[in-house]
Recover the amino acids of this structure.
């Protein structure tokens, strides 16, 4: 039996690495494309190139039976770079896939396209309502993908919530560091908002379903998220309990804290971006009925499962690898800036 061939863009990122491993284990011939060299499993072809490089992308795409487009920017990037990578890179990739008649392309979008929705659980029919450079770019790129679908491409679109699991750093590394040091951890207000996340293993399962489902079912747009999730206070407290120091989640007045964090962000003294600040003040969860009913997707992990698995992985890492980096990928611990100094208060 001849193996099928898949191209995974953003293959050195957290999601990309997990997809490379899964498709390789499932017997696919895997090519990864990323601007950053990775450490792919044996037998995986790796191409180091920018997703905006038309020639390199076309070379990587040639002969693929499937493309999974994960390459993107983070909200912490400069606005111009976010749009160039997310919108320009997606357009480059989809043009290549269409020219080369790739049978199926799975596009990894984001629930950020909803902005700060006033309907929860948020369904896929909720309109685009971006509020910052990242969510605007993701909405524009997804709209571009839908135009390619309208022109005849088989193009499943997945909108995941924030995904968590071994390999994830970013702002989670701050929670883990404070927990390990035996500190309390602050939340805005009472911390009783429900913030839905997603285990990386479940997102990989959803991508595999979208890659293999019958065309009529797959050629649609799907939210992907955990089915079980508590309040922010409950899910973060699980980490403090796991650390074993008897520390607690501590409420801080939302108004003053929000104002201070906005000032710190503008002064580039905090990695906490504006949309995240607002998201943490209200319930944020989406409906997953559509992907369950159409693709049969049932997540295996709760928020708490995913966060604790990430924390346990983090504790096993050498201390040197936990040091703050540039924040260029979700696998980098972000610099805490002025928030690191606030630890003494907790």
């Amino acid at each position: 039996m001849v193996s099928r061939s898949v191209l995974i863009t953003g293959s050195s990122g957290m999601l990309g690495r997990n997809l490379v491993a899964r498709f390789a284990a499932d017997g696919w011939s895997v090519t990864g494309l990323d601007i950053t060299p990775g450490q792919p499993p044996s037998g995986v072809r790796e191409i180091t190139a920018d997703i905006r490089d038309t020639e390199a992308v076309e070379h990587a795409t040639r002969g693929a039976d499937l493309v999974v487009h994960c390459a993107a920017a983070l909200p912490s990037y400069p606005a111009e770079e976010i749009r160039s990578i997310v919108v320009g890179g997606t357009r480059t990739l989809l043009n290549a896939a269409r020219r080369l008649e790739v049978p199926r392309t799975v596009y990894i979008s984001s629930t950020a396209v909803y902005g700060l929705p006033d309907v929860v659980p948020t369904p896929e029919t909720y309109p685009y309502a971006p509020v910052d450079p990242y969510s605007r770019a993701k909405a524009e790129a997804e709209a571009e993908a839908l135009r390619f679908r309208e022109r005849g491409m088989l193009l499943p679109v997945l909108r995941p919530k924030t995904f968590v699991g071994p390999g994830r750093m970013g702002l989670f590394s701050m929670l883990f560091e404070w927990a390990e040091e035996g500190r309390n951890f602050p939340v805005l207000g009472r911390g009783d908002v429900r913030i839905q996340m997603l285990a990386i293993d479940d997102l990989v399962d959803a991508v595999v379903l979208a890659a293999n489902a019958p065309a009529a079912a797959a050629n649609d747009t799907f939210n992907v998220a955990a089915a079980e999730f508590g309040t922010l206070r409950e899910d973060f407290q699980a980490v403090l309990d796991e650390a074993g120091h008897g520390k607690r989640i501590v409420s801080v007045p939302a108004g003053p804290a929000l104002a201070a964090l906005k000032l710190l962000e503008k002064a580039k003294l905090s990695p906490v971006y504006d949309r995240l600040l607002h998201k943490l003040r209200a319930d944020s969860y989406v409906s997953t009925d559509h992907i369950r009913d159409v693709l049969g997707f049932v997540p295996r992990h709760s928020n708490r499962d995913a966060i604790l698995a990430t924390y346990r992985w983090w504790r096993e890492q050498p201390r040197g690898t936990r040091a703050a980096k540039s924040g260029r990928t979700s696998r980098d611990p972000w610099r805490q800036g002025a928030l690191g100094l606030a630890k003494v208060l907790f």
The first helix runs from residue 14 to 25. Residues 324-328 have pLDDT under 50 and may be disordered. Residues 5-155 form a domain with the Rossmann fold fold (CATH 3.40.50.720).
